[in-house]
Design goal:
Blueprint lengths: L26 E3 L5 E9 L3 H10 L3 E10 L4 E9 L7 H10 L3 E7 L2 E2 L2 E3 L7 E2 L2 E2 L5 H15 L1 H26 L3 H14 L4 E7 L3 E7 L18 H14 L3 E7 L8 E7 L2
Antiparallel strand pairs: 1-7, 2-4, 2-5, 3-4, 6-7, 8-9, 10-11, 11-13, 12-13
This protein binds zinc ion.
The site of zinc ion (ZN) has 10 residues, from loops.
Length: 275
């Protein structure tokens, strides 16, 4: 499969991808191991020394992140580590790290319950610099099912309207933050859906009268895969409506013509601008 960086133009020509998961630092479960969590703030050039120290002490990195503050030339490193093969105790390692030149701050946690360590050092969760929270696709599916049970078609309207508002404000913020033209804004928004775990999507067709958007593994439809007679997306359908209404400057109709819920390979949305 083709790999490497794609331009927005090339993005998802064949809707590939979706086979390299991104697992954010959250927890680790290794019943036989000695686990810990570490936070190090340091000068950028110091990173190499930390990596070397881990290597020399047989410390295994399980999951983590690295953020560079360009203005301060500082790196924040957060990591869950396996210290089973460490010679000596963790406190000694922490002291060693503190002694490295360029290390500015160190915190650690070794609060492990039956082989499970949960991140206790980092909050809030930021995604692309924005405060975020996560919701399991399965949980969202349960929310949807409950909504439909209680409110029937009213649930569809509520979800569509929620999406519409989100799409409108997203479009406005992308246009103002990045100072891009409207079509580029749509491409940025769709590319970001993949980065944020919604789906892999792309603009398949686009002209002055309408557009077609394809979405692979859309979170909203996945809980219903192969289980429905008709397309199920309302939130994302509304989201697209919000985006394209802003783009065209008039009302649009968005129809989901293909959907994984009714056995199709991808979800396909046809957007038509009103005359
Ligand atoms: Zn769908």
């Amino acid at each position: 499969m083709r790999r490497g960086t794609k331009s927005l133009e090339e993005f998802g020509k064949e809707l590939d991808g979706g086979d390299i998961p991104k697992d954010i630092l959250c927890k680790a479960y290794l019943p036989q191991a000695r686990l810990a969590e570490l936070y190090v703030r340091m000068k950028r050039k110091t990173l190499k020394n930390i990596v070397d120290l881990f290597h020399n002490k047989n410390i295994v990195e399980l999951s983590g992140f690295l953020n560079l503050d360009m203005e301060k030339d500082e790196i924040v490193k957060g990591v869950l580590i396996d210290v089973s093969k460490l010679d000596g105790d963790l406190a000694g390692v922490i002291e060693d790290i503190k002694r490295i030149e360029g290390v500015l701050e160190v915190k650690f946690s070794d609060n492990v319950l039956n082989g499970l360590i949960i991140d206790e050092l980092f909050f809030p969760l930021m995604v692309g610099g924005e405060r975020s929270f996560t919701l399991r696709v399965e949980s969202f599916g349960a929310i949807l099912k409950r909504l439909y049970e209680k409110f029937g078609t009213g649930a569809a309207v509520i979800l569509y309207e929620m999406g519409l508002g989100m799409g409108e404000s997203k479009f406005k913020s992308v246009v103002s933050n990045y100072r891009v033209d409207k079509q580029t804004a749509v491409k940025i928004i769709l590319a970001e859906r993949s980065a944020k775990g919604w789906c892999i999507s792309r603009l398949d067709e686009f002209n002055s009268k309408g557009a077609v958007v394809l979405a692979k593994d859309l979170f909203e439809c996945m809980p219903f895969r192969d289980r429905q007679e008709r397309p199920v997306s309302q939130l994302f359908r509304g989201y697209l409506a919000g985006i394209f209404q802003q783009l065209y400057g008039k009302n649009v109709n968005v129809t989901e013509t293909e959907c994984i819920a009714k056995g199709d390979n991808v979800c396909k949305f046809v957007i038509q601008a009103e005359k």
